[in-house]
Amino acid sequence: MTEEPALRLRSALEARGLPWPAPIEHYPIVGSTNDRLKERARSGAPEWTVVVADKQTAGRGRRGRRWASPPGNLYLSVLLRPSSPAASVLPLAAGVAIAEALAPLGVVAALKWPNDVLVGARKLAGVLAEASSSASGLEWMVMGIGVNLDPRGMPDELRATATSLEAEIGHPGSREELAAAVLARLTVWYHALIGTGPASLLDAWRSRSVGWWGKPVEARSGDQVMRGVARDVDERGALLLDLEDGSRRAILSGEVQEVRLLPAEARTCS
Ligand code: BTN
Fold it and tell me: Which atom of ligand 1 is nearest to the CA of 116?
């Protein structure tokens, strides 16, 4: 563990009027910041504990995918211990927080359900939320956030589908400033969610979402393929699809690998 980047992040938070209430751990190299923070969560770390790393050797994406994690990008995980039933919407809050943190840098990001952060059609950031529950409810949620800042270490196979802050605005920005901005916005949405429920967060998410509403999409879950018209997200953050047989289906993020817009020639529903 090294002190200096953690202190810089703490100072950046303080400069935003947000003295951070919990430990911030920085590692030059770690398997996965989510895995390290899950260990901390299991041994009772306080809410808002943060783990950041320069590089991950076993970075993970949604649905068991690998998250390429060369040096130069943001890899951050934050621990939440929400008692509210609205907690299932928190992963959407992370996407909104990232998009809001990027906006002052001139990046217009769009959110693809459940929480991919896109610029145009390319992915700039992703969120991996992992939670543990017991009989008495949710014990903790680790929110893992990865933002591509520097294109240099990006694997060749991702270049067609991913982007970076440097590719978008000409420089990679300050990792600690971006981390502080994301955490500050996440804090705001977290308190809004716990205090008044998911309505305002869902409106913020909808206002930044890709324009799929009313269009046919395909959702894959294992071997199953569901086709329908994307209608909305519900109060749990589930995607609402009107299926071809006329029924409405609410899809939770853990159920599907990928949702994609169908090309015009494959559209059979209206
Ligand atoms: C996705 O879009 O599939 C989610 C990607 C999440 C990547 C971040 S990087 C920090 C944290 N640690 C991980 O191993 N994954 C998340």
Answer: 2
Low-confidence ranges of the chain (pLDDT < 70): 1-2, 264-270
For atom 10 of ligand 1, the residue with the nearest CA is 75
| Lining residues, ligand 1, CB within 6 Å | 32-34, 56, 59-62, 65, 67, 75-77, 116, 126-128, 144-146
pLDDT digit string (tens) for 1-59? Answer: 667 999 999 999 999 999 999 999 999 999 999 999 999 999 999 999 999 999 999 99
The side-by-side arrangement of strands in the sheet containing 110-112 is 24-27, 50-53, 74-80, 137-147, 122-134, 116-119, 110-112
Q: Could you tell me the distance, in angstroms and rounded to a whole number, from the CA of residue 65 to the centre of ligand 1? A: 9
The atom of ligand 1 lying closest to the CA of 69 is: 9
Residue 63, judged by CB atoms within 10 A of its CB (0-12, 13-18, 19+), counts as middle
pLDDT at 268 (0 to 100): 46
| Biggest distance spanned by C-alpha atoms of the chain | 57
